[in-house]
Amino acid sequence: MTLRESSDRRTLLWVGFAAAVVALAFAKPGWAPYLCPVSCYFALACGVFAHNHNHCPTFTSKAANEAFGSVLSIFYGYPTFAWIPTHNMGHHKFVNRPGDETITWRYTRKHVAWAALIYFFVSSYWQSGPIQNFITNAKRSKPALFRTIVRQYVVWIGAHVLLLSGAIALHGLAIGFRVWALACLVPSFFALWTIMLFNYEQHVHADPWSEHNHSRSWEGKLLNYLLFNNGLHAAHHEHPGTHWSKLPAVHAALRPQIDPRLIEGGLTWYFVKQYALAPFLPAFGTVQVGRAAYDEKQTAELGIPSGA
């Protein structure tokens, strides 16, 4: 298995760490609660890898790429093929405009905590239709793709059945379920929920009609190291096939053309400003940059009250 980019050695190392932390929790059930946050981070990292792998395959071999996608789904919490109909064919095409199932403004135009908290559930619901249509169309006319989809579901579900069964066999029903939940279930949900949250924060109050102001980016060095440059979102949208390791250079070139209000430093301070300070001091919150994604007719059709 040959890597396309040598920097993905760190990707593989992180996947190995993710597996090692799960194995350690299974071996030392008393450690599972303390290892859970670590597993949550590595599951989130695997979600980032699934996104990166979807845009820029990790290996030169098609078979290796399919196998890697299936492995990532175990940690990430859902088969990775689902990025194609919802992310590639929807989000990247419409970028928070009507037609994008992941729009941030479905129920409110405001950038508020409750909208961010429920965004995972709302977005998941609306993405389920395109995913099901994609599977149906693959079954009807693309048998090779359909077999890949089935394999990913089998690996994803089968792996968790084996992991749960193994944990129960090692530690009994109650402790075994607890270990599996802390090492696998909670981290997977955390990864899915957080990936969705990032999408919300990256596009709320940005201008999806603009050439360069369509996304919010974070330049924090620690964030981008831990999440493999996932914070440099405008650069990714404008060059989706660019490998994650090359995004800093792309971002640096684009930066002068991006509204400064859409460039943040660290993620922690951003959340403090938006959700702790802005409710009391609105100047700390985001504002709509440029043209909004919606108009009055579109919001009325979606049931959004005027000014919501």
Quaternary structure state of the chains depicted: single chain
Question: Can you tell me the overall shape?
Answer: globular
**Helix fraction?**
55-70%
With strands numbered from the N-terminus, the spatial order across the biggest sheet is 1-2
The tally of helices reads 12
Report the C-alpha radius of gyration, rounded. Answer: 20 Å
Helix vs. strand class: mainly alpha
- Reading the helices and strands in chain order gives HHHHHHHEHHHEHH
Relative strand content:
under 5%
Query: Are there runs of 5+ residues with pLDDT below 50, and where?
Result: none
Mean pLDDT: 94
**Secondary structure: number of strands:** 2
Distance between the termini: 52 Å
Question: How would you characterize the largest beta sheet?
Answer: 2 strands, parallel
What would a concise description of this structure say?
With 308 residues, the chain is mainly α.
Q: What would your notes on this structure say?
A:
Strands 1-2 form a two-stranded parallel sheet. It has twelve helices and two strands, in the order αααααααβαααβαα. The protein has helices spanning 8-27, 32-55, 62-76, 83-94, 113-141, 143-171, 173-203, 221-226, 233-238, 247-254, 267-277, 296-301; strands spanning 217-218, 263-264. Helix content is 64%, strand content 1%. The model has no long low-confidence stretch (mean pLDDT 94). The chain has 308 residues and is mainly α. It is globular and about 55 Å long. α1 runs antiparallel to α2, α2 packs across α7 and α5 (113-141) packs across α6.
